[in-house]
Amino acid sequence: MKRRSFLKNTALTSVGSLAVPSIVPSTVFGKNAPSNKIHVGQIGCGRISRWGDILGVIQHDFAQTIGVCDVDSKRAADGKANVDQFYAKQGKTVDTKIFENYQAILASSDIDAVVISTPDHWHAQPAIEAALAKKHIYLQKPHAMTIKEGKLVSDIVQSQGVKFQLGTQQRSSEQFRYACELVRNGRIGKVHTVKIGLPGDPSGPLATPEPIPENLDYDAWLGPAPWVDYAEMLVHPQADYSRPGWLRQEQYCAGMITGWGQHHFDIAAWGTNTEYTGPVTIEAIADFPRSGSWNVHGDFMVRMEFLNGLTFLISGGYPNGIRFEGENGWIFVTRGNYQATDSDPNSQDGEQSPLEASDSQILTDGIGPNDIHLPRSSDHHGNWLESIRNDSEPISNVEVAHRVGSMCLLGHIAMKFPHRLNWDPSTETFVGHDKANEMLSRPQRAPYGTDHIVY
């Protein structure tokens, strides 16, 4: 049952200091509108934006990134340069605007849609505010830091009717869709177990407080997270776009269980048709650093059981990818040697096959006309843009983002307890466990955070 009826008649008065346009820009109405360019604002110009999101949008001639922002002014300038240089190579002269902050992007009537490529702790709030401002949303995963936030994002996005795509781009890769179609169509019989290979993160040194760089609005970067003294190793590098330290801090990220976890959990749920529900029991063990400033989980094992008897097992001890095991065989799918960034945990030996099975015949049988066919996409950003232009459903919608993200976060919460937890997917609460339910949300530092949005 959808959780949105309480929002449908909400009268929007304000979103903090955000001015919300009263008229939806004409560009959202599709290819026959006076201007069929979808004007996009880029929120966050860090590593994933530089190597994925900016190019993912501007390569489409019916979309144009017209503005960028980042709390680090150097990165905002680099983001503008990336866009301008791309268009210059096409013989076009553009002058992409650097906005003061993301609220200014959302307040601009020239912008139809936003791509949010911020650190994890800055995903939910701008996504909610973008929906309230009637901007279409492409959001990097995970879409929220807590299950409570995730529910709020899903409810508000659905109530506002904007197009939402989560950056789980494996759904737009051929081998993942095909693997899920094979599983859904019973090629390996009834599935009883899914094994998800997912590494942890190592510990690191103790951070030493440093002066805040003049180009960084550090208070805004921290946002809803507690105040801590600045150290470059806890934020992002100033000299390059290598893997940032915030990925290893629980204040800003739950670790690989949500970082890469949302990609793999998403495929596991897609293949087993559990993408709109959740497990009923979760148990986990995990190593956490005992020294240094990086404090996300290391080696771990999570076990989840669903009401129908299906079991998910998640551990770094399995090969990186998703292995569906059924009564009549197994299918394993992974990215192979593809890397979005140079630190992605993929095979580097050039020999990783993206799709394997217990019997090669399973992979060659194909999907017949009367079989289950899952939605097709070969370009994740393009699929989102097309959904705006054609008023269609994106392949990674917001409720799936929430339900799959919740599975990841349930695994993270279970790491904190020495015993099995019982979960009710219908109420989205732990059964008879007050301490675990307290972890469905976290304190937020005012004036930032989803608790402080006025609507």
Describe the 3D structure.
The chain contains 13 helices and 15 strands. With 455 residues, the protein is of the alpha/beta class. It starts with 37 loop residues before the first strand and ends in a 17-residue tail after the last helix. Residues 1-34 and 338-349 have low confidence and may be disordered.
Contiguous uncertain segments of 5+ residues: 1-34, 338-349
Question: Which sequence of strands runs across the widest sheet?
Answer: 13-12-11-7-10-9-8-14-15
Distance between the termini: 24 Å
Order of helices and strands: EHEHEHEHEHEHEHHHEEEEEEHHHEEH
Offer a concise description of the structure.
With 455 residues, this protein is α/β, with parallel strands linked by helices. Helices cover 28% and strands 15% of the residues. The two termini are 24 Å apart.
